[in-house]
Amino acid sequence: MPTASHHIRLALFVLAGLACLAATLVLLGQRQNLFGSSLAVQADFRNVSGLLTGNNVRLAGITVGTVKEINILNDSTVRVMMHLNRDVQPYVRKNAVASVGTDGLVGNTIVNLTAVAAPAPLIAEGDVLRTTTPPAIDEMLATLSISNKNLVGITEDLHQITGKLNDSRALWQLLGDQKVAANVRQTLRHAASATATLQASANDIGHLTRGIRQGRGPAGYLLTDKEFAKQLRHTTRQLARSSDTLAGTLGSLQQQVQSGNGPLHTLLTDTAMSGQLRQTLGHVEQGTDGFNQNMEALKHNFLLRGYFRKQAKRKAKAAAQ
């Protein structure tokens, strides 16, 4: 009985080991695509960043194959052979782009396939995919280190500024002064009022400008009426011609006066003739007064009195009509 029990235990142990081995083989086969149909494609990289055979190939975050071979072609090109599952062939096209990345932040290196929106035939056996080189982790960490140093400097500057503000009594007195706050509020109100006034003025100017463009009002008429513009140009030309004529006449008169010829020069410069002219005008005035006196005397003469009365009646009658 003890011997049979030991045999049973041994058999169970062997079966369990075989089951574990089978499960391991199945898992590894699925992971490495050992038991399924695969599609071999290639991609050339400048840097594979520690990629190893057996690492995963992913499409849209889903594992669709594994890395089978990694070969160095020259000093700047590394060719990676990948086996993709046949069932993903309808979803991968020839213009897909391969890139080397990491599984998470510090995980294993993997190959990512990215689909392109442009139309292209489906991928086939032996195709060479286009590649792109994303920023390396080392470069990203170096950039992050520089950013951290800059951030430390900015933090120190802010700390110094905060310390100076805390030590500034004048600043805190200014912030706590109610009069200053009231003045600031009043200034803001004045600024708002001025802004509203400027806005209203701008609206008025805009309305006036639109009216002028449409020909409304005196200004619009003056600036947009074509007939008025023609008349204004004609008047301006006539004024220019009249000015030229007047200037010529004045120039001729000035020349005559300056040359000493003609009666105008004599009247303006000869004092004797001026005296005679005044004397003549005085005689004419005296003669006119004498004539008026004689006419008045004739009106009172009995021989001509009737005639002058008739003339006066005719004038009165004509004025009445």
Give an account of the 3D structure.
The structure is a single chain. By secondary structure, the chain is of the alpha/beta class. Among the domains are: 28-134; 225-269; 271-321. It has helices spanning 2-32, 137-167, 169-176, 178-213, 217-224, 226-259, 263-269, 271-300, 305-320, and strands spanning 38-45, 56-59, 62-74, 77-85, 97-102, 109-114, 128-132. The protein has a seven-stranded mixed beta barrel with strand order 1-4-3-2-6-5-7. It is elongated. The termini are far apart.
Question: What is the gist of this entry?
Answer:
The protein has 321 residues and is of the alpha/beta class. Among the domains are: 28-134; 225-269; 271-321. It is built from nine helices and seven strands; from the N terminus they run αβββββββαααααααα.
